[in-house]
């Protein structure tokens, strides 16, 4: 059953999330909450809200840092302007493919368009634009690479100086070193190569959907230059189309001229041979006769010369004449069409100088910076929560220690001129602190004063955890209901022992005359808090930390309904916990976010080893309450 449950993906996911939010993964393996009978609680919405409230400031700090970095980025970046022009290409489909299915035509069109895109991105077009506009000597024709980190800080510093009107002063007193420019002359080929790279980086050519239109976009720091280069690129492409077509036509005409001369010469020779043969009235040609023009010599040797007749010579001459006439017609047609050669592309939209920079996009960068900061903040919070071994949630106490968290008390502010935080439940009975403490009183069953809960000890891990505040307010809460409550102070270094109000009535007692026999006379009633109080330093002869003396004292104060003993903290030594077995129960006080879980585990384990009854852990100075059940119980608790 346990193996099936542990192999469930949902169960493993729950373990991982709880490990990230509550404790390190190393502390999970040896805890008893993996037993089959232990209840498994999923992370509730209240836990998520508590986590968010706890690390809200850290997450917001990361978000603000991300926004500041984003602002610094686009404030120190050069504005980039984009100019766009559009051309339309007229595809040429061969006549033999025009009647083919649409799939063939589509594939052919795609190949033609992609070829035109390659021509637009070619180095030939780049060099034509660079030479036409003289970009190699234009100082505004620069790369799109952003400034370096040092240059960005320099710009930010100069912006601050300019805003304060201290430009001249800082240039004289603390000049910023200018960026060194390369003075070494560059080769012409290197300059051209660099210009082509800058042109290629700024040029973007895209096909518009599945149409024959193409968008030519150029990005530059100068808006006017961007428009000029975009238009020049389109014009260079059209001009290159015309030049290529003209060069092809010129090459064809030149070839036709050479071929016409060759065929003409062959035609003339064949005609002359036929005429000479007819003049001799001889139907054969001797071996010493001149071979027919254009005839293969090997064929002439293979065939006997007496087989050549006048009809054959006339057919040969007529064939060469027809070839010549065909070439002449093609030549005439080519010469007539050459002045009317046009490009297969035309400009349909000219680029204009942009008014607004296309980069950097401030809104998008700010949103990205805020999102990145939030993700980094959440990651930092999760990592910090996973590495944090201090007490923060009741779930940690329940699963790490196997104890119940009986209350979460918020921070109590100190007030001048009054009893301070020690009478908070009387001064502010409707506060969240008072309501939570009444819930603790109801949970413990102190209102009924049952015999099993008459003697209560309160201790903590270290001084300053709020132990004295809990003792005083809990006793005041019990005394306000008419229950006879006695507070025994067994910690002479506690804040309660040094309170002036509690020490005023003990100044007149002679310490030398104090003895265990008359220790009952040392108890004083505190009117402002409605409980009885026994101070430790008055009864040093009895030494309340000795178990025999404490047992005797508890027997003498049996008339009190509730006895609350303030025990020394665990950090002062374990000998103070020797009194715990004499009590009906012990409450451990832990400070939220400060008390270590390891030290708290040592304290509770020591109490269990002494056979002490641990009622639970009470968290003090809680900044974020993990659940609302304590507040609900506080509202339902009797007053």
TrEMBL record:
Q: How does it sit in the membrane?
A: Multi-pass membrane protein
Q: What is its main location?
A: membrane
Give all residue intervals belonging to the Tyrosine-protein kinase G-rich domain.
Answer: 305-385
- Boundaries of every CobQ/CobB/MinD/ParA nucleotide binding domain copy: 458-625
The GO molecular function terms of this record are: protein tyrosine kinase activity
Keyword vocabulary terms for this entry: ATP-binding, Cell membrane, Membrane, Nucleotide-binding, Transmembrane, Transmembrane helix
The membrane spanning regions, by residue number, are 53-75, 364-383
Q: Which GO terms describe its cellular component?
A: plasma membrane
What subcellular locations does the record give?
A: Cell membrane
Q: Does Transmembrane show up as a keyword for this record?
A: yes
Which InterPro entries does UniProt cross-reference here? Bact_polysacc_biosynth/exp, CobQ/CobB/MinD/ParA_Nub-bd_dom, GNVR, LPS_length_determ_N, P-loop_NTPase, Wzc-like_C
The Polysaccharide chain length determinant N-terminal domain is annotated at 43-133
Its protein name is Lipopolysaccharide biosynthesis protein
* Organism of provenance: Mesorhizobium prunaredense
């Amino acid at each position: 059953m346990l193996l099936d449950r542990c192999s469930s993906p949902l169960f493993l996911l729950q373990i991982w999330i709880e490990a990230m939010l509550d404790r390190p993964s190393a502390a999970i393996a040896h805890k008893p909450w993996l037993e089959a009978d232990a209840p498994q609680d999923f992370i509730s919405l209240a836990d998520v809200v508590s986590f968010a409230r706890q690390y809200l400031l850290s997450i917001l700090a990361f978000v603000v840092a991300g926004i500041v970095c984003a602002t610094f980025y686009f404030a120190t970046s050069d504005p980039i302007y984009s100019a766009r022009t559009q051309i339309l290409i007229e595809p040429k489909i061969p006549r033999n493919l025009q009647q083919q299915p649409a799939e063939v035509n589509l594939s052919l069109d795609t190949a033609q368009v992609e070829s035109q895109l390659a021509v637009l991105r070619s180095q030939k077009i780049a060099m034509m634009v660079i030479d036409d506009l003289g970009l190699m000597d234009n100082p505004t024709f620069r790369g799109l690479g952003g400034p370096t980190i040092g240059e960005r800080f320099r710009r930010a510093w100069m912006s601050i100086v300019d805003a304060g009107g201290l430009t001249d002063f800082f240039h004289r007193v603390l000049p910023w070193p200018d960026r060194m420019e390369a003075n070494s002359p560059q080769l012409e080929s290197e300059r051209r190569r660099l210009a082509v790279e800058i042109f290629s980086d700024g040029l973007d050519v895209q096909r518009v959907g599945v149409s024959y239109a193409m968008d030519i976009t150029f990005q530059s720091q100068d808006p006017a230059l961007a428009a000029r280069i975009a238009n020049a690129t389109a014009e260079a492409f059209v001009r290159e189309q015309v030049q290529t077509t003209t060069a092809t036509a010129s090459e064809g005409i030149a070839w036709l001229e050479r071929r016409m001369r060759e065929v003409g010469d062959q035609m003339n020779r064949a005609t002359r041979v036929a005429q000479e043969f007819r003049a001799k009235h001889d139907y054969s040609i001797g071996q010493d006769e001149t071979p027919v023009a254009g005839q293969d010599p090997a064929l002439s040797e293979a065939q006997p010369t007496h087989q050549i007749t006048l009809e054959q010579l006339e057919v040969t001459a007529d064939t060469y004449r027809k070839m010549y006439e065909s070439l002449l017609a093609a030549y005439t047609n080519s010469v007539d069409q050459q002045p009317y050669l046009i490009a297969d592309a035309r400009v349909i939209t000219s680029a204009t100088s942009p008014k607004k920079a296309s980069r950097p996009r401030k809104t998008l960068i700010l949103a990205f910076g805020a999102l990145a900061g939030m993700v980094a903040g959440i990651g930092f919070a999760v990592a910090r929560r996973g590495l944090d071994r201090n007490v923060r949630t009741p779930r940690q106490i329940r699963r790490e220690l196997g104890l119940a968290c009986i209350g979460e008390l918020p921070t109590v502010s100190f007030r001048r001129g009054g009893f301070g935080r020690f009478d908070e439940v009387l001064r502010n009975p409707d506060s969240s602190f008072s309501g939570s403490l009444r819930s603790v009183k109801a949970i413990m069953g102190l209102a009924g004063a049952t015999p099993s809960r008459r003697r209560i000890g309160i201790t903590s891990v270290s001084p300053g955890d709020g132990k004295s505040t809990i003792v005083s307010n809990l006793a005041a809460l019990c005394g306000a209901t008419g229950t006879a409550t006695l507070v025994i102070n067994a910690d002479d270094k506690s804040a309660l022992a040094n309170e002036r109000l509690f020490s005023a009535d003990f100044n007149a007692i002679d310490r030398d005359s104090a003895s265990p026999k008359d220790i009952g006379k040392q108890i004083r009633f505190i009117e402002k808090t409605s409980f009885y109080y026994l101070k430790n330093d008055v009864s040093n002869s009895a030494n309340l930390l000795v178990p025999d003396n404490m047992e005797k004292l508890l027997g003498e104060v049996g008339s009190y309904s509730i006895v609350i003993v303030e025990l020394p903290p665990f950090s002062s030594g374990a000998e103070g916990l020797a009194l715990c077995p004499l009590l009906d129960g012990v409450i451990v006080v832990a400070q939220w976010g400060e008390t270590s879980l390891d030290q708290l585990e040592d304290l509770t384990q020591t109490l269990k080893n002494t056979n002490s009854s641990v009622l639970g852990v009470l968290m003090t100075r809680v900044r974020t309450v993990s659940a609302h059940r304590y507040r609900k119980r506080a509202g339902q608790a009797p007053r």
